[in-house]
Every structure is written in C-alpha cells, then in structure tokens.
Specification:
Belongs to the mitochondrial carrier (TC 2.A.29) family. The protein is mainly alpha-helical and about 375 residues long. It is built from 15 helices and 2 strands. β1 and β2 form a beta hairpin. α2 packs across α8. It is globular and about 60 Å long.
C-alpha cells in the first residue's frame, strides 16, 4: 500500500510538473470532461459523412453513421487497385471500367473488400485527430500570445496549418498498422496465392513473416503527406469561414453564422485542395506497403510476371522509379474515384463535428 501511495503521489507530481511547463494548472475534472466531449465529437464526425446526405434523420446514430464508409467502399477499393496495379498488366483503366471489372470478376462482395478494416480504423482515427487538433490549437495559440504579448491574438492560417499537421500525424501514427494491412486486404483477390483471412490474421502474418517494422511500411510519405492533406484541410476550412464571416459576401452570413450549405462548400473546397496536393504521396505509400509481401496479389505482381517483389528501397526511390517507368501521371492514378469519395466526406465531417460540439457544449479556446 505504501509503495502504491508513493507511485500515486509521484505520478501526480509528474503530471503537475509537465503540465505546469506550459504555465497552466493540472487538468481539472471539468477539463477532463471537455477532453472526453471533444473525443466523442471527433469520433461521431468520423462516422458521419456521405450517409448523412442519404439518411439525415440518423445523423447522430453511431452504428448507422459508419455505413457512410461502406457507401463509398467500392470507390476506395478501386482507388487503391489503380494505385498499385502492375503497369505491365493493366486490369483497371478507369473509374467506370474498373468498377465493372470488379463486379464481373469478383461479384458484389468484391466491391467491399477491405471495408471492415476501414470501418474499424476510422472512429479512433477521427477521435484522436479532432481532439489532437483542438489541443494543438490551444497550445500553439497560447505560445503565440506569449511570444507576441497580444492576449487577443487569434490563430493565423499558418498556425492552423501547423495544428492540423500535428493532429494528422498523431492520428495516422496511432492507427497506421491497420491502414497498412487494409491496403493488402483490399487488393487481394480469389486468384491471390495466399489469402489474409481478416484484420488480425493479416496483422499477425505481417508481424511474424516481415517483422514489426513492416507494419509501418510507407509511414514516412504518410507523415509528409499529412502536412498538405490534413493541415490544408483545417487551414483552408477555417480561413474560408473567417473570410466569409468578416466580408459577408452575397448574403451568405446571417447573424455571424454560416449556413450548413456554406459550411459544406467550405469543407468541399478544403478537401479538394488538401487531397490534390498530397495525392502523389498517397500513391507512393500504397506502393511501399506492397513491398516484401510474400505471395502478393496478382494485381501487384502482374499476371505472367511471376511472383517477383516490388523493389523500392525507400520513398525517394519509389518516386524516382514510378516517374521513370510510368510517367508523372502515375502519381495521380486513382485521383478521380478518390475525389468523388473524399470531397463530400470531408465537407460533411467538418460540419458534423461543429454541430456535435455545439450540442455537447465544447468550445475551442484557451482554458481559464
């Protein structure tokens, strides 16, 4: 008991010391409640996207909100297939042709391969991402006010970019192994020499056959891609909102509030900018995830090309070989189905997050 008391006191002292380095008090019960509310809002925002357009009456029902990911699963799978397919054995040449080919060769279920892993990953990823963004925003704003001496200073677009990048890196790193095996589960077909039976089988197989580091293949381009993708998403969205509220063009603002339609437009614009700039890095990370895969799917090795592995020694080498052998356009393979899928999802996620925050009474500000 005495040792437990010592450990407890030591832990409390350590937490207080670390927190006080920022010049604030240790988290109170109210602060912890606010953290929990932010996580809930982020998780719901991750679940609500395209499905909300179809069934708005179920907007805040968690289980049905996850179906939004299923609604766009065929486009997500086609995007990954276009990204990693062997250039010497083209099976998927476009969005419509690719979907028809999947339907013809694999049936209805083939359109949804890898979707289970995506649904399992998206809620913790979104919760961590939105919570991290709020905490990073608070910390950056506090530091900025201390440095400038302006207590009423607000976040600039550049500072929002930094907060969004931090949030994206933390969320992506926390769930990256699931994303890595999702890529492989998505591209395997009935013709693959050996099948992953599910998420946990894929994780354990990769861990034992390729080592723990293999679960983070493609992590570096993912981290780099977070800066323009998540960072620009938040920065463009927040900056557009601020601009519209201040300038009030075309009567889009009423009582200092933007309509839902206007917020959706801001989110769509943010999603378009972010995903277009970062897309080449997404292609490279998917290709790096396939490296070292024993008995890889035929779409990766190419029919009649044997079971030779992809030879990328790193991110730069992957960029160089992709451009050299397939041209610059290869860095944007799958962009069309990705745009159809991502832009409305990001737009609705932002709007839903704000609505849920308002319901839960969460405010993005420096704690008193």
């Amino acid at each position: 008991m005495a040792s437990e008391d010592v450990v407890g006191k030591t832990s409390e002292t350590a937490v207080s010391t670390i927190v006080n380095l920022r010049g604030v008090k240790a988290p109170s019960q109210a602060a912890l409640l606010s953290i929990c509310k932010s996580l809930v809002a982020g998780g719901v925002a991750g679940g609500v996207s395209v499905h909300s357009l179809l069934f708005p009456e179920y907007r805040f029902r968690f289980r049905r909100d996850l179906l939004s990911r299923t609604a766009v699963a065929p486009l997500e799978r086609l995007k990954i297939l276009l990204q990693v397919q062997n250039p010497h054995s083209i099976k998927y040449s476009g969005t419509v042709q690719g979907l028809k080919y999947i339907w013809r060769t694999e049936g209805f279920r083939g359109l949804f391969k890898g979707n289970g892993t995506n649904c399992a990953r998206i809620v913790p990823n979104s919760a961590v991402k939105f919570f991290s963004y709020e905490e990073a925003s608070k910390g950056i704003l506090w530091f900025y006010r201390q440095q400038t001496g302006k207590e009423d200073a607000e976040l600039t677009p550049l500072l929002r970019l930094g907060a969004g990048a931090c949030a994206g890196i933390i969320a992506m790193s926390a769930t990256y192994p699931m994303d890595m095996v999702r890529g492989r589960l998505t591209v395997q077909t009935e013709l693959s020499p050996r099948q992953y039976r599910g998420i946990f089988h894929a994780l354990s197989t990769v861990f034992h056959e390729e080592g723990p580091r293999a679960l983070y293949k493609g992590w570096l381009p993912s981290v780099i891609g977070v800066v323009p993708y998540v960072g620009l998403n938040f920065a463009v969205y927040e900056s557009l909102k601020d601009y519209l509220i201040k300038s009030r063009p075309l009567g889009l603002v009423e009582d200092s509030e933007l309509s839902v339609a206007t917020k959706l437009a801001c989110g769509a614009a943010a999603g378009t900018v972010g995903q277009t700039v970062a897309y080449p890095l997404d292609v490279i990370r998917r290709r790096m995830q396939m490296v070292g895969w024993k008995d890889a799917a035929s779409v990766v090795t190419g029919d009649g090309q044997g079971k030779s592995r992809l030879e990328y020694s790193g991110m730069v080498d992957a960029f160089r070989k992709t451009v050299r052998h397939e041209g610059f356009g290869a860095l944007y393979k799958g962009l069309v189905p990705n745009s159809v899928k991502v832009v409305p999802s990001i737009a609705i996620a932002f709007v839903t997050y704000e609505v849920v925050k308002d319901i839960l009474g969460v405010e993005i500000r420096i704690s008193d």
